[in-house]
Amino acid sequence: MTDKLVDIRNLTVRFKGGRTVHAINDLSLSLDQGETLSLLGESGSGKSVTLKTLLGLLPPKRSEIEGDILVNGTDIRTLSGKALQRYRGGEVSMVFQDPGLALDPVYTVGNQIAEAVMRHKGLRKEEAMDIAFDMLQRVRIPSPERRLKNYPHELSGGMRQRVMIALALACRPRLLLADEPTTALDATVQIQILLLLRDLQREFGMGVIFVTHDIGVAVEVSERIAVMYAGRIVEEGTTHEIINDPRHPYTRGLLAANLHDVAKGERLNAIPGAPPALEAPPTGCSFAPRCPMAGPECTAGVPDFVHLGPRRRVACLRVEPVPAE
Amino acid sequence: MLSYFLRRLILVLPVAFGVSVICFLLVQIAPGDPLTAIMPVDATAEEQAAMRAAYGLDKPLPVQYGIWIANLAQGDMGRSIATGRPVAGEVFGAVQNSLLLAISAAVIAFPIGIFLGFLAGYFRDTLLDRAVTAISIAGVSVPNYWLGIVLVIIFSVSLGWLPSMGAGPGGSQDWGWDWLHIRHLILPAVTLAVVPIGIVARTVRALSGDILTMDFVQALYAKGMSRFDVLAHVARNAAATALSVMGLQLGYLLGGSILIETVFNWPGSGFLLSNAIFQRDLPLLQGTILVLALFFVAMNLIVDVAQAAIDPRIKRN
Question: What is the CATH number of domain A6-314?
Fold first, then answer.
């Protein structure tokens, strides 16, 4: 057995329908207890699908899932019924992108938090409400006793996301999944929410998988970054390594496309082209068509990972493996 | 909540005023002179004028309206031209019978409609969904007077299980909660329930189907809620809109059962209305329409207030 919090091995997710979409292709990923990892990538790279797979939230009829997903040593794909309900929200919980849509509009926020607490901790309503109150305090919502009785539409966007976080952490999960939790918020509020999440992570010590397309956000919150492209991880390392020594041309492109240090009037360094359609499984490096360094060998086969350290890997033929010291 | 109710109540007054003016003017718009129906053909001009004065028809319209409203306020809706009996008594007796029929139809229709709609919404795009959709389209489309006649042919004529006419044994007008009376209620109530079953099922299907695709449903599953919990959330979200549709349907059931009441000889307001129309009994027509219209207005008020009570997103101030 493994002592890792999350251990995803060779995960493949396909969506059936009018046309098949190969959303995740042979993804392996691990997370230690209490560790914070960012999944970085653009829209459609499979970040959110990875999170939903971890919670078993994909529609079973339309999705085909292969591979192992171990959370605390349990393959969550074997869970169902009550065990799955205990796992969801109890062991792993999720903060959604848009708190305006993820909260039920006709229940008070207190009830929505208490509902989860009652389910997982088996408490009575009043005790659960006390915990909801405590959680609202912890996410630093002013006058929490009043807010408990508020409906989501009576709160601002930032406040709603705080409620969402309070809800996600109320049952003290070992793993928190955050799906672009700041994307729907104002820039000033984004920073507050990021700092709050970072503080709460230190306080509660849970592991966090943080999905974002914003490299600045990833740097702010996480110890490690895994860069995703077209349903695969293309590079993984510590935040420091990714920022200072990016190896994959896609990661380099992402960093170069940053808006900082760009003089007015200067052309932005965008990566040319668009991500591939995911209708067929990849037969080569998915990034090759947009890659300035690509050669014919890049499309001949899916590049294997080059391991540069114990948890540092890059899927690119142009990267030379470091000789063992 | 009480202040919201009072504010809504005040807003109802102009509507009620409009309704009363229209009902009053109906008599004026209707072609023909009401007097010709009750006066002998060879009545002299003086006799006609005397009769006109007796009914107050010689006064200017606003004065006539004022008198009418003042009488109305005392529960006096005039006398039926055909029977000479007070309109108020006739109308209230009939409205009671209609209410009985409408509420019975609603009690049959709403639970079935809600259940079918939920099933279809939850199992959207499956065979079950298509079956429910077919049922609701059929329910809304089938002319219910025709369906009533078919049911009479089957259950009254062929099988002889249920009576085909009236609201009690031997044409009795006095309702009682015993099998002798209830068996008279079954066929008209079932017939009347068919349309609202279709409409409620369709509404609930659309509502629950849409709500189930919303993000918060996934968030509910994500925090460990069971399927049953999620359905409770969906129901609460759908309740306000579903309730308003059902409230309006109840209004339609009360006023719109003319054909059914005629088919089954049910002594209700619709039956009264059709008699009043054919006998050109204008005071009776006026009174019946007024009471039905005011009932509809009251129904709307109740629905609005209930909606605000259920759905926190509806502004109360």
Answer: 3.40.50.300
